Amino acid sequence: MQGFMTPPRKLHIKSYGCQMNVYDAQRMVDTLGAEGFVETTEAGDADLVILNTCHIREKASEKVYSELGRLRVAKEDAARAGRAIQIAVAGCVAQAEGAEIIARAPTVDVVVGPQSYHHLPELLARAGRGEPAIETEFPAEDKFSLLAKPSRDAIRARGVSAFVTVQEGCDKFCTFCVVPYTRGSEMSRPVERIVDDVRQLTDNGVREITLIGQNVNAYHGDGPDGRPWTLGRLLYRIAEIPGVARIRYSTSHPNDVDDSLIAAHRDLRAVMPFVHLPVQSGSDRILGLMNRKHGASDYLKVVDRFRAVRPDIAFSSDFIVGFPGETEEDFRATLALIDQIGYAAAYSFKYSPRPGTPAADLQEMVSAPEMDERLERLQALIDSQQSAFNKAAIGTVVDVLFERAARKPGQLVGRTAYLQPAHVMASHDIVGQVLPVRIDSLERYSLLGELVTAPAANSRAPISPAPFLSIGG
Ligand code: SAH
Ligand code: SF4
Ligand code: F3S
User: Fold this and answer.
1) Could you say which of 93, 148, 384, 451 is the most buried, measured as most Cβ atoms within 10 Å of its Cβ?
2) Mean pLDDT estimate for the chain
3) Is the pTM of this model over 0.85?
4) What's the CATH number where 444 sits?
């Protein structure tokens, strides 16, 4: 409880890893905001620093310890000046390592796993009394309904595009991956709770909703009819909410693409024709060792189903190079698959053995120089596809959702349907609108163009979404 004259305590939060962590960080800020904390961008003048960590690769989780080293110094300096700083470790490293974190970095006051963020205020109080404050259980209660909702001001400050978690956890158990252990088994939020969250966002100026989950298209939340709904069905419901101009969802697994999802892409102009569909490898042998439960040809068939209803659809993917036992031939199969698909973008990673995962026991490690060389070849291929994709926009008119002022005075930046940043000279009051832009040139990954007053005849979009002109506030 804040006393009348108590200045607000300051909170600094640093997130690593995926979109789930970005979303969780906002909900932690909202929840601690209700306890009197205000966010600060400076770790140095915070009373509480939260590191929201990622365990996916060794590099990601080791970053936490170097950051904790720096924080220890800041905490000791502050203590000498008579000021206390609390340090909390949240996220997937907290879940995976628990008490070990405090053993290795005694400067840490609180360790909290992703399913327990609603207990943060209590954990901080416990730590304040010098009691142990470590929580990595998977509690039975639903954290989403127990975390505070964002305030109107917080929503407006975060901009026109927002994430909404609809699903969490994963039951797929790919042999390289820690997520099923750090986030637990799949759970889906009920449809009506998601609808309420989206309404609150759009009432406060949000125009683009990205539904997120580790395995978002395995969504099976309870509908208002008491039956489980698919992601496709959820998309139809979200598209009905006034103010929703664009809908995206991430991350999908190829095996969970069902007919309702394809139909949503066919029928709903708000559903963006850009899908993140990780395949990891193009070699059936490696896909088998990864326990992906699909081959390269199954993946191609899934892509074809999307393309049949939306010829303008584009894909991005994740790739792992150097999975144990990957031969040059296996790697070439990955390049061949990339060639066949033609991606608009992709993320690629060197395989990193993770403690507790089945693949960590595999012996046949690919050597470091081979991994480097394969990563370089794969990235060169992806880069060439991405720049061809971006270049194809030059001379066309595309719809852009305007997000904010760009660095250059008078310039605004927004995103195309394919998440390409697009810059135009325009007045700030078009932020939040989707308007047609004629693309003139490309500067690195950014499209440059000018607003056109006539409706977009998007050369890539046969189902050309009409421009959304000033929807509400
Ligand atoms: N749920 C998503 C993404 C999970 S993590 C999916 O199913 O694809 C994001 C990406 O990190 C993965 O797609 C994978 O490419 C990569 N990744 C996961 N574990 C890894 C590991 N042990 N080493 C290297 N990359 C890994
Ligand atoms: Fe990890 Fe595989 Fe689940 Fe994705 S589908 S989160 S890669 S186990
Ligand atoms: Fe990292 Fe956890 Fe996300 S391991 S990628 S933060 S689910």
Assistant:
1) 93
2) 93
3) yes
4) 2.40.50.140
